[in-house]
Amino acid sequence: MKFQSKRIHHHPHSPLSSSNPFDVLTEEISLAIADLSGLYAQSSSPEHFIATLLSRFFTNAGLSSLFVNCSGLVEVDLSNATHLTDLAASAIAEARNLERLSLARCKLITDMGIGCIAVGCRKLKSLCLKWCLRVGDLGVELIALKCKQIQSLDPSYLPITEKCLNSVLELQNLEDLVLEGCNGIDDDGLSTLEQSCKSLKMLNLSNCQNVTHTGLSSLINGTEQLQQIILAYGSSVTSDLAKCLYTYLKLQSIKLDGCIITWSGIKAMACLRAPIKELSFSKCIGLTDDGFSSLVQSHKDLRKLDITCCRKITYTSIDSITSLCTSLTSFRMESCSLVPKEAFVLIGERCSFLEELDATDNEIDDEGLKSISRCSKLSILKLGICSNISDEGLAKVGSRCSQLKELDLYRSTAVSDTAIAAIADGCPALEMINIAYNDKITDKSLISLSKCGMLKALEIRGCLGVSSTGVSAIAVGCKQIAVLDIKKCFNINDNGMLSVAQFSQNLKQINLSYCSVTDVGLVALASLSRLQNMTILHLAGLTPNGLAAALLACRALTKVKLHASFRPLLSQSILGYMEAHGCVFHWRDKAFQALGEARRLEESLRPPRRQRVHEAAIQLSEAARGDEAMLLAIHQRRGTHAQGTVGFTFKRPETEHLVPPTGIVMGESENTKSKTSASELQKFAIRVLSLTCSVTSCERNWSVFQQLHSKRRNRLTQSRLNGMVYAKFNCVLRRRYQRKDTTDPILLKEIDESNEWLMDHMDDEDGEEDDFVFDGDNLHGMMLIKLPGHLKLLIPLEEHLHQVHQEIEERVLPKPPLVEGPTGLNLIDEEDEEIEQDIGLSEDDGEEEVHGIDVDDDDDEDEF
């Protein structure tokens, strides 16, 4: 009897699970898997036994039991198992027949563990060690020395150097070598290489900033079978770099994404003798029409071309490409902003074999779509952020491109239900469609798409016209749906989720953020046995108990995004249980954003409204805090209707009491008919108004410190210096307070000039200090006096300074002739010399104890 290839996916809640929820992989489970592997071992082809392990479910002990008993394992994927150590690696070494192993991001495994694998797994053909940061030259060299059958090796982002490359290049069967991000490899090291790999077909040197044409020439010297080379985000593409590739006649694919392209480099690439089939220049700098035209003239057999974000490409390049490379099957040209709409007509007329076209964020219009619809083999079409296309052009695509499988219409706002109906009728093989943030899309579109039985991924986020009716139609008609994104579809509620739970048994990923789904709908979704990924942010009807029930009932979850406010509300035992079973929680503290509120806020901050938004923010802030008196004062000043600048109207209620907003939306109450959706703006206002608007006051304080701490006063203690500055600043405040007659509570006229985001322009400094905020505030300070027995007395600073002045005059200064005048100390704004006399300082009293106040620098009770 012969067994076919089979993958084993182990889930912790399967019938084989242990009764202890925290025992992730027990001996019982391992033996059960071992029994299954025994059946394969008895077959004539035991190498077909493959295990794709969801690595977060396994511990070192569990892996040891598994590999000891499963001698028929040939493929294991333990990617992202960041908790596994060298003990797990030694357990893997027991799988003697292992051929393909992935340990990507196993960051705790070291050279010792890799050495165990090299000794035990001699039949390895493919090994991925990407991001195994503790593996160095020793581990990679051991793999090369012991595993002679290696065909694919990926030590990307490892701290390796050229020391291990000689052994790697000796591998006679090596075809794919990925050295991405290996910054320890440089030209000097590569020049010392003595070996060459004649069997190498693919070389990836992406993000190797220290490798230029010199090192590349040394590395690929003698490589006769090289077919693909990837140099993305590396050194500049010069003529010397291109000349390194002259002798490789089997080269078919060159990827230079993110590189700087020089004129000499592109000209040298045009002289390559190899039959290049694929070129990738995504996000390259320096690529122009002249260089590109000369390149395609020499490589007319191109099948795949990527010029994403090449913003210097114009109509000239598209004309050259379409006229010379008529066999193109894949053309990616996202965000080529200088390409006019006429260029897309040429693509449809000349590239009849086209299967993939990415025209995202371009000027394509309906005429271009009508031309592209001639490409009958088109299977992938991306038209996101194309505002010039409409139903007319898409109707042509739907009627002619029957093999279309993937369609992206993200933010193509002119598209309506008519276009989607045409696509659904003419493209029965459709597997993925993105119609997010299109206001004209309604339930009619989803009912039309329900005819596409092969549909696997649907993204309708931000489609306000979609409701549970449309989602139910998709659930009933598209049984293969695996990915569903309904974020910000406010009209989708539990009814839609009940249909999804009943009919969409293949669903693996769903985004429910901002929907009207409650506990009922979420618990219903938990019955889906294949659901692995959920995003649940800002569900108004969700409670902690409902969330906990759904999490416990959903047995296959591996990733959940939740709002941070739920974290303290969920039991730690529940979180621990889920994490022990492989579920990773991503906590987000993203604020709720009501419909249209972000747009209104953005509009309000544009000139010339910046100054007025300060007033509206204060109104919202006070309303949020329930300060009825202040809100009434604002209404009295601004009139019965205080019109905000951000699109909200604050109405003065007819009753005597104000009702501050307490929820997400301030609904209609019994006493008032006013409605306000400003909770987020209230939070924003509170945060802004709680910040220090300017550092001007601090700068002035520092200036006073500099004036007082002169050479004459270098013996002043810190507490005494603080007191002098405090007195000086209060002198200024009192003077300005006595001079000012009226005060605006909102202080629109006193907005600090550094807040240019609130104002239309920057005013020059006028030298004016800050005013009081409200009338009646006593801002000239108090003094804390220490008394015996750890007692303290708080007295006005003015009275204290008067006492200090009199005492110092009696002890130090000669008594002046008696002059009639007002009693007490009159605080005014004086120059530095006069300040010294007011406070009573002399050059020799820096360390004295004045009036029972300890002025030592280490005084923790200093109130200045």
TrEMBL record:
Source superkingdom: Eukaryota
Recorded GO MF terms: protein dimerization activity
SMART domains (alphabetical): LRR_CC
Acidic residues bias locations: 828-848, 855-864
HAT C-terminal dimerisation domain location: 678-730
UniProt region (Disordered), positions on chain: 815-864
One of the Pfam families matching this protein, by short name: Dimer_Tnp_hAT
Span of domain F-box/LRR-repeat protein 15-like leucin rich repeat: 59-193, 287-475, 477-559
Gene Ontology CC: SCF ubiquitin ligase complex
GO biological process: SCF-dependent proteasomal ubiquitin-dependent protein catabolic process
Protein name as it appears in the record: F-box/LRR-repeat protein 3
Organism the protein comes from: Hibiscus syriacus (Rose of Sharon)
